[in-house]
Design goal:
The protein has helices at about 10-25, 40-55, 60-70, 75-85, 90-100, 120-130, 145-155, 195-220, 230-240, and strands at about 30-35, 55-60, 110-115, 140-145, 155-160, 165, 225. By secondary structure, it is of the alpha/beta class. It has a five-stranded parallel beta sheet, sandwiched between helices. A two-stranded antiparallel ribbon has the order 5-6. A hairpin with a 6-residue loop joins strand 5 and strand 6 (about 165). It is globular.
Length: about 250
Amino acid sequence: MAAASLADYSLEELLDEAQRRINCARATYRGIILMGPPGAGKGTQAPNLKDEFCACHLSTGDVLRKAVSQGTELGLKAKEIMNRGELVPDNLVNEIVAESIKSEECKNGFILDGYPRTVSQAKFLDNFLKSENKEINDVITLDVPDSILTERITGRLIHKASGRSYHKKFNPPKNDMIDDITGEPLIQRKDDTAEVLVPRLKQFREQTKPVIEYYKTQSKNLVKLIDANDKLSTVWERIKAACGVNEEKLY
């Protein structure tokens, strides 16, 4: 928050920012996996987790695009595969995610969004973190009935540069199709349709649900199942409670 723009913020916003900085100074390393079907609210809750734990938010798609744009050795390999219209294989995704976790941005921890998608990826992640003397602390699983997901998906709006998400009905931007923070245009993804949702849900059930079961076998209290069929603020309070967050307010 730049000093020159302090007048643009309310007292409550300034206090919240001060609280965030204190939390960051106190932060201990936290490894979080955020899971749930398309439309469950991962894109909305991930920034909250990022601020709460001063961690990095690693979305699989964003991580791959960043590696490609930076022209890293792994990114160039991924680009070549994607240019052929093929899926980036597990071993390469694993290496790119591991490289990101080791970055300075993730020194206080990470929120993984969209990874691991398979049990083999989860096992790789466990072994990698063990080699770094780190671990997964929370597997937050957002639970929403299929009937609700269609309405959520078809009304979703995205700020492409940051990944911030809105919803035409449940979480609309202040100005139509405009990002609240930057004033830049919002987009609706081409695959955010009822037709595309059906195979995406099928893929989630077949690939990702076994990952949840895998983590249940690792530790009794590792997986936190969150009822996400509610107001955004209510869901966030449930997530904080599940993660044992006790807020010490300045005011």
